[in-house]
Write a structure and sequence with these properties.
The protein is of the alpha/beta class and about 400 residues long. It is built from 15 helices and 14 strands. It is globular, with a radius of gyration of 21 Å. The structure holds pyridoxal-5'-phosphate (PLP). Pyridoxal-5'-phosphate binds next to α5.
Length: about 400
Amino acid sequence: MAGLVEGLAAGLAALGREGLVRTRRVAEAREGATLGSESGRLVDFSSNDYLGLSTHPALAAAAHAAIDQVGTGAGASPLVSGHFRAHEEAEARFATFVGLPRALLFGSGYAANLGMLEALGGREAAIFGDRLNHACLVDGAILSRAAFTRLPHGDVGALASALERSAARVKIVATDAVFSMDGDVAPLRETLALCERHDAWLVIDDAHGIGVLGREGRGTLDHLGLASERIVYMATLGKALGGYGAFVAGHATVVEWLLQKARTYVFSTALPPACAAVATAAIGVLESPESPLRRLRGNIEHLAKRAREAGLALRPSPTAIHPLVVGEPQAAVDASQALERAGLRVPAIRPPTVPRGTSRLRLSISAAHAEADIDRLVRELAALRAVA
Ligand SMILES: *Cc1c(COP(=O)(O)O)cnc(C)c1O
């Protein structure tokens, strides 16, 4: 036993030498984009709560009402007795919102991608994924036992030749719609055309596009004007939609297959009904005249303008994610700590989340930021010679 623990301790020491140890901080309070903790108040540029919906009164009221009606936990998996009216309503509302025939609620985005890829894949399948795909698309591909090919980022030519060479009975192309650490949008139109030509499924993970891109925040399919029966679409509820959980949406037969077969759906307790009610309320806010989406888009434009004036190397992106690549992990950590001393929470993103040599600061913009917050951020970044 001592030897086993020593092995882990040596592994942790190695992480320390490489500047890769991560720590949590305890958040005690939240007001708009400001987090209160032991070390004081910080303006948060690290959250995926892009619309500030996690503190929206309509979402909180929906959660309270659902808890008063049916309690806190679903109590069972959906196919046993855990599927409540709130789940049924949220699925229908979400399918309509994203323009797909049917949707299924999963416990989380991670669970959705694992269950979906495993259910669609199998030993006779081949899965093709972008090298920068989120960890759960990678893990889902491995779990599915399909032949798994990781392709260079955004390389449609490489995907074309991989599909050309494959003799698999079932082909699946899986990609993030918006890459979570880079904020670039995948070449989905070209990817869909290749899937049509090679009769492949196209699995799209829109964790960072839902609520942000498209009319009223309907997501990346709406943003690019894409529709196809071969699209299997996943979006999370824990980011711009301000709650927790995830949906998979697509052709009604695909969704029925997942309901019967996806192991993370069948063998897992249903999402708390309050989370489903929060999802429905979030879509209601997005479709209302009071949607915070316009404010988010104004803030993204404001960041681009101020960064240009300050000479910061930010790539233009219509999304809320704006990376500043620094290089080595320690330099990213030093910059993040300097910003924290100035009252700003900006995370250093390091391997294994991003490839070696591309450690970065990841700026997440929210509708909850004031323009003055963004001005302050740009001023402090410009003051850090290491990244300016
Ligand atoms: C956050 C994220 C997930 C996981 O979703 P959870 O609901 O947090 O489990 C999946 N894919 C991408 C691209 C993500 O950013």
